[in-house]
Fold each of these.
Amino acid sequence: FVGAQSLVLTKSMDLEKGGNGQHCHFKQGESLPFEPQGILGRGASGQVDKVLSQISFKEYARKRLLRSAATVSNHPELRTFFGCLAAALEFLHGQRVRHKDIKPKNILVHRGNILFTDFGLSLDFTDADSSTTISMVNGMTPKYCAPEVAQYEPRNTMSDIWSLGVVFMEMAVVLKGKTIEFMTDFFREHGSQQ
């Protein structure tokens, strides 16, 4: 009974109930009743693998984020990502799609290809006159969202470009041998200097 408690007294049960696609975060060493089935891809911030639940026997995609700071020596391919991501975003906008949630966690590297993922918040504006929306924001990541998104003002494809710019800034920080934490601390200490 005591051994089986780890299968019951865990946040993984919330995953089994269906969290409407919400992410669930687990601390290092926390019990996870998932059996790895193989790697699906790697991204700048971690790895995605296919896992099998030992509770429901359903398959899931598990994203594991790196806790260590990224360095240039760990990610020499990072330099090539700038153009690839810009071209991918240009393609999306050309297809009249606004991603609306660009951030490192939604960028995946798979077999040498860099991909935008998680289109749950995206907007297909094929049948609209423009990409501009004024409706309530249904989700955002404050660190990566454009000012107009954070202030609930009209927004369009330029908001995606802002978000990609923040990702580019983080990539540049890593290429300079610094950590994202260093950048965050720098901005916290120095502010916008306006």
Amino acid sequence: TLAFISAFFYRPLLSFIRNSTDAVLFQREYSREELLKELGKTVSESIDLTILIENIKDVLLQVMHMKFVAFVFFPEERIGLSKFEVESFGPFNKKYAFQSDNFLVSTLNQTSEVLVRDELKRRAEDIESPAKKNMETIVTEMDKIGAQVLVPLPASKGLVGMLALGEKGSGDAYTTTDIQTLETLMYQAGTAIENARLYNEVKSFSQKLQQEVKVATTDLVDKNKFLNTLRRLDQIIMNTLDLSSMCQKIVDTVSWEMGYAGGLIGLIDKKNNLIRAQALSDAPIFQKVKSLLPKDLRDLAISLNDEHHVLVQLLKDGEMKVVPRMAALFTPAISYDLAEKIQGLTKIKTNLVYALSAKGKELGIIIIGLTKDYAEVSERERELIQAFVEQAGIAVENATLYSELEQINKELNQANVHLKELDKMKDEFVSIASHELRTPMTAIKGYLWMLDSGKHKLKMGRRHAEYLERVKASTERLINLVNDMLDVSRIEGGRMQLNIKNGVAEHMISGVLAEIMPKALEKKIDLIFERPKSPLPKVRIDENRIREVLMNLLGNALKFTPENGKITVSARKQGKMVNISVVDTGKGIARNDIPKLFQKFGRLEHSFALISETSGTGLGLYITKSLVGLHGGKIWVKSTPGKGSTFTFSLRVVEE
């Protein structure tokens, strides 16, 4: 009977259920669409993270009636979130350990797709592939937290987290429409959560900043006076060099900038072993004080031999002292009665006495007068005064050093004038002496030649002939030295005159080589001129002086190149200069001796032996460098000990 009734009513009942379900589903879908619009509005308007989460949760529960909603937020260093955080509503498994390498988290990061447990389980049962194992693992992990759906929450820089949704209260499965709704929601929710987190970060930072600004503002108000005072003192240090002006500006700063009654500076007079008053504040009341003094301020002093005096004790121990009575400070420089009268006139209650020092050196003392008790001086004021005194010590030291430097410069200027006069006298003496020496030496050379050559030649033995040769060589050396000294005198006195003309470097070099070739043949040294491949441009030279330069360099090369050696002369154009080089295969020069080469009487290692062997004057390269410099060129050397040297000098090309 039951089977008959069921069979008879099945089709009408099924039709009724389908029609009723369609109507309900249509109405439910319509309601969901309206709620999503409302959720979109709420998401866009909610900037506080807590409110935003509440709104999203409320809408989801209202629409889909799941048993729980859980927000899992991923770590993000930018906002200080170092680990996973969970905000859940309902029976969510909070003990589940979320990690960055967790399979669920990795899968969501890779796919950014909504994961539905039942769908994944069904697909895993229908396929046989590597993906099957992944699906089964996801289902297993979702079962651990009791989630039916996992919704990623994408934002501008990846996922900010995910939504874990429990099963529906009715036990129904999540429909395609539900999933599509969640897919629409996840982008809005992810962006909104990111913005809300950034807002919370900015809000927190703003609150922290406001608190810090409040504290800093209070501190800045306290420090403003401090900084202005030190800035004023810095300006004094930078703009004042005179010691008296410096001290006066410092004590005026005590009155005008710091707002105290006044100040006094006393400096140590080492010569007379005194502490001598140097400057007193220029405030109106102290103008009257000055008129009461028995003598000029700077004539007031305390003896450093008075070991019991408070100022002398201060300089010994260096510790600040608080002195209520002026009489203890200024007697016996002034009378006790006058000190008391001045204290009553200025209404000073407390005198703060500091040692002025810099770099451990005692310079004097500074007294700061206050119209209040020391107990009323705040800690900030004490720091200000201490910093001010330290800066004042530096300022006084700088001014003292400047005054000493001025005195030294004055003495040096006087000494410099005297030295210039002596140098001028020396040059005149060298010039006169050289002229006077050259005349008789030339005559001696002539007579020696007559004895050794011509019709007056004497007949003499071998030993006498050797003596005569030595005399001739010594005479020639002395004449060369006199000529070199004359050249040095002209160069250093600015009297060297050049006859500059356009010249051909190749012709000049050929002429010098022809002149020096006999000496090279005598020493069995190859003397080679490497001519340039193409003619060189003309150069601006005094040919006689440049011949002297080249002759000097070749002469040195011949002296220091052994027999069967080689000397090569070359000329090359480089830029606007022609470089002439003399390369030898001689002994070479040690690197540390090269800077000495172009100095007057520069001595190299074993130079005395070399000079005695080669008859050098020690002035040749100095004169050579000077002559090249007068032509607007330069000279330099490269050398390797044991392999030889290369001397190069440059000459200016004639501009077309």
